[in-house]
Amino acid sequence: MKRVIGLAVGRGTGPEVAAVFERVLGAFARLYATDIQLVRSPRTYHSYASLKAEGGVQEIGRLTQEDAAHYERFCRTQAESGTRVIFRTAVNAQSLYLVRQRLQAVKVDAMATATAGTEPAREASLLLVRDQAQGFYTGENQHAPGVVRRTMEFSREITEKVLACAVDRAWRQWPGKGPSQVVMAYKFHLLDGALDAWVTELATRYDIPVRLFQPDTVNRNLITHGLADRTVVVAGNEWADIMHVVLLDRFGSDRQENRCTENVHLHPDVRGLVEYQTVHGSADDLEGLDRVNPVATVRAAAAIAERYADCAGAVRATEDVLATLAERDVRTPDLGGRHSTTAVVDALLAALPEALERSRPGPLPGQLAAASRVDRG
Q1: Per-residue pLDDT at 50
Q2: 216 membership: H or E segment, kind and range
C-alpha cells in the first residue's frame, strides 16, 4: 500500500530543510520496505525576508495573498485525495495565518514530563494547544497613507471546536487518565465579555475544570505554583507564540531549534489533515551555507514515518541516535558544534539501522535486516 505524504517548501533554508526531510524519510522507506510517495507543492512560498526583497508594501501584500491562496488550495487538494499529513518548511507568517484561519488550525505540542521548577520540586506534563484559527494574528489588512488597519474576529463556533479538539487530544495523550484541568489563556477582557460567556457555557460539558484567564495571570500562576500534572493549556497566539519557547524550557527541557510540532485542521473540508513543521523559522541568513540545524526536521520525518507509514519504532530509534550524536558532539554551530547539516544527517543515517534493530521488539523482518546490512556496507 502506497503512503502519500505532502511536502510544501518555503524560501530561505526551506530547500535545504526539505532535502533533509526527503533523505531521512527515504531512509525509513528503504529500511522498512515501505512505499512512500511525496507530493510536493509546485510553488516555493515566500519567507518574510524574500518578500521584502520583492518590493514595497503593495507588492508584499499581493504576494502574501497569492502564497496563502495557493497553499490553501494545496492543502484542500491533498485532503480531498486522501492525504493525511503534510510536512511544511517555514514560510511567511502572514500567509500562514490566513490559511490557518480559513482551515481552522490548532497547533499541538506535548511537553515531555520534567521537573517543573517548583518548590518543592514535582513532576508535571503539559499539552499546549495553540488556537491559530481566530484572534489577533488572523485577519486582513487595509492600508491608508501612514496607517494599516487589521480586522480580525473571535467566534463561539471556533472556540467550541478548539476546546473540543484540546480535550479529545488530551485523552489520547494520557489514556486512562485524561486531563486534570484546562487552562485557557486569552486577552478576553478586550471582547466585551463575549469569550468569557462562551467558555463559561462550554465548560459545563466537561467533567474537568475549564478556566479562562488573562495571560499575565497564567504567567503569575506558572511562576508561583507551577501547573498540575496533565494540564491542557489552550491559548491564543498572542500568548502562546511568545511563551512556547519558555514552556519548552520549563517542561520539555528542549530548544525550539530542535522541535517539531503538529498543526491540526478542524475545517470540515480538510478535517483530520495534519501538518508537521519545524518550530524554527526560515533562517534566511543561513541559506546555502549547509549550517541549518536538521534535528527538528529529522524528528518530523521520524514521527511521520511512524504515525503515517507504519514504521513502528522510528521515533524511538531516532531519539536514541540523536542522543548518541549529542554525546559525541556531532551538532551544528547553533548548538555549539562544528558540523555541517549534511555531516549531522550523514552520521544519523549511518547509525539508524542498528538503532532500529534495537528499538523493534522481537526478531527483525528479513527486509529490514537485509537493508541494515546493506546500509552498514
Answers
A1: 95
A2: helix 215-225
